[in-house]
Amino acid sequence: MAGLKTALTLALGLAAGFAHADTSLLNVSYDVTRELYKDINTAFVADYQKKSGETVSIRQSHGASSAQALSVMQGLQADVVTMNQPNDIDLLAEHGQLVPANWRTRLPDNSAPYTTTMVFLVRHGNPKNIKDWSDLARPGVQVVIANPKTSGNGRYTYLAAWGYKKQQGATDAQAQDFEKAIFKNVPVLDTGGRGATTTFTQRGIGDVLVTFENEVALIDTGAGGKDFDAVYPSMSLLAEPPVTIVDKVVDKRGTRKLATAYLDYLYTPAAQEIIAQHHLRPRNAEVLAKHASEFKPLKTFTVEQVFGSWQKAQQAHFADGGTFDQVVVDKR
Fold it and tell me: What is the DSSP string of 126-149?
């Protein structure tokens, strides 16, 4: 009997050990970060094992940013979320009570370990001579943009165009007319940024794709780069993709320590180098300086400067009945 008890105790101990060694996280992210987090995860797992002796694994989920946030709010067990704009995490705080309202303050730089911006990708030789936001509103120019209702990518594009017009002294009514002219030129509204890229690069639809700088760089330097050219507008919107642990999930799963280490790792020089290699602008000044030749100087403005806050921008432009609905009413 004693022997059986000893064997049982040993078996339970071994089971606990295996469970500990098989710790995993789910990172729910937006749809153009697949390649980035594939590399980040590999590096983090190796670094964590070296420092702690523990073997861990990171699982990924990708899709349109806002749709991903809704999935988490509806029960997808994300230990961390790495979204492309703050509204998607605010949703988890305000309506899902999954993270605290002060989530931005828990990590450096408003919990955004890198930045990017919205730029253009055109057909090689730029046959439509597209140089700035104003060219997107010209008759005869087809513009590929992700749907701002479902995609942070599309939302940044919409706000960038509005902000460009406002920076020129336009009224809100003039900015809205400008958006109407642009979206009149949009042949299809894909649900996410990667879908919009596929529409432009593989389906051959459109004269210009508006998307994140890193997505444009990925295409421009890839195998099909000879077919496309990158175009930088005179100014654009600063994008600060935020990250956070999902408190309600990590406390339930017992993964807070691992999830915290994972997000902290994003700010390390090693991770910042990976971020730069994926054409995202790192926060680390030394790493950014090392890649200065790639990241062209560009005048940017923030959502806060033009719209007051992300919450105000969301309510005014993307809530039901907001300006975006008014802009595309004729397209339905």
Answer: -TT---SGGGGGSTT--EEEE-TT
d(CA 196, CA 129): 21
Last residue of a domain, one of 219, 249, 267: 267
8 Å CB contact between 265 and 47: yes
Four-CA torsion 43, 45, 47, 49, nearest 10 degrees: -160
Same domain, residue pair 247 and 231: no
For the full predicted model, state whether its pTM sits above 0.70. Answer: yes
Per the structure block, which two tokens stand in for 70? 């809704």
Average pLDDT taken over every residue of the chain: 91
Distance CA 326, CA 126 (A): 31
Strands (E) located in the chain: 23-30, 56-63, 80-82, 114-123, 143-146, 189-190, 208-212, 228-231, 235-239, 243-245, 281-282, 299-301
Q: Of the given ranges (3-7, 34-38, 250-254), which has the lowest mean pLDDT?
A: 3-7
Tens digits of residue pLDDT in 52-100:
999 999 999 998 888 899 999 999 999 999 998 898 999 999 987 999 9
Does one domain contain both 183 and 319?
yes
CATH number for 90: 3.40.190.10
Query: Can you tell me the distance from the alpha carbon of 318 to that of 326, in angstroms, rounded to the nearest whole number?
Result: 10
- Token duo for residue 312: 């105000």
Residue among 316, 302, 280, 328 at smallest CA distance from 147: 328
Work out the end-to-end distance of the chain between its first and last CA atoms, rounded to an integer number of angstroms: 75
**Per-residue confidence (pLDDT) for residue 17, from 0 to 100:** 39
Burial class (CB in 10 A: 0-12, 13-18, 19+), 205: middle
Of 221-235, 279-293, 300-314, the least confident: 221-235
In this structure, the number of other CB atoms found within 10 A of the CB of residue 20 comes to: 11
Token digits of residue 207? 């004269």
Q: Has residue 170 got a pLDDT over 80?
A: yes
247 shares a domain with 223: no
